[in-house]
Amino acid sequence: MLTTACYHRSVPDSPTSRDDVRTRIVTAAAELLRQDGAAGVTTRAVAERAGVQVPTIYRSFGDKDGLLDAVAEHAMTEFSRTKAAAARDAAERDADPVADLRDGWDRTIGFGLANPDLFVIMSDPRRGRGSPAVAAGLRLLEERLRRVAAVGRLMVREQEAVRLMHAAGTGAVLAVLDEPEDERDPTLADAVFDAVMSRIVTPAPGDERAPDVPPVRTAALTLRAVAADLPALTPAERMVLAEWLDRIVDDETDRPPGSPD
Fold this sequence. Notes:
Blueprint: H1 4-10, H2 15-36, H3 43-50, H4 54-61, H5 64-92, H6 97-114, H7 116-123, H8 125-128, H9 132-150, H10 158-177, H11 187-200, H12 215-226, H13 235-254
Helix pairs in contact: 2-3, 2-5, 4-5, 5-6, 5-7, 5-9, 6-7, 6-9, 6-10, 7-10, 9-10, 9-12, 10-11, 12-13
């Protein structure tokens, strides 16, 4: 006859139990990462804080790198949810898309500077490339830039704007973090933002600076941003329209300003 203790040992852990253990481990590792940096996230320290055995960590995550990946993914997922909620609120309020883009930038810079070790982990292309949380963040950036394009303020293709904004944001945080902690200047990120905006966004109405972009191209980019949602066209017609608009954008990109048709 099985004793109660033997019975419990012979029954496999339920999915809920395994998820609970995994959550405890990730939470413990995240706390250590914030307090002591990546060097402080040892399997022994995590096991002690989570109340598990070291082999449990290896069974759940493979190795320390797998655990750090899980911690970073969890934190980035929570951060992406916060940014998504803010973006939805801005869209519902019909807020200025450019101001909303700046809000997203400020949130990202603030998150990176507040979580330096975590940000460095996620900035590694080998880690971030397959991350669902990073992909969700990029989709959110695409949505924000599409709103900018829809009001006629985007000067480049949405895909190019996404790449520039993402690279600039990552680079700005890493550049600030690379400085000695007592010499870090967060305003560097402001200068980077202004430089990127001058490359991808037209000046606001009334601004004395003349946009160095053909008006036909701006119009094509604006229509391209909403082409997929035009109810008067069939799906096939929307695809054709998108292709035509892309060709217009490419043609105007190669045409020097002020050149004849």
